[in-house]
Design goal:
Layout (H helix, E strand, L loop, with lengths): L1 H16 L6 H21 L6 H24 L1
């Protein structure tokens, strides 16, 4: 279930920032990094999300932040 959530979070983040995904493996990796980053951000802000939808939201927010930071280094 963790890999499916990671894939969906990476796919959503890719669509939000680029308009398309990064492929199966890329979406999973972005989603996994996003889960870590999103979890850290939500903890710092003292926010919480529960259930599968909450996990997907946290992972997607983290993945968007991760991709945004990466885009800063590409320029």
């Amino acid at each position: 279930m963790f890999l499916i959530t990671g894939f969906l979070a990476g796919l959503l983040a890719g669509k939000i920032l680029r308009g398309r995904g990064y492929g199966l493996l890329g979406n999973i990796l972005i989603g996994l990094f996003g889960a870590y980053i999103g979890g850290s951000l939500f903890n710092m802000l003292e926010l919480s999300a529960s259930g599968w939808i909450g996990e997907l939201l946290v992972s997607t927010v983290g993945a968007v932040v991760f991709l945004w930071v990466l885009s800063l280094f590409k320029k």
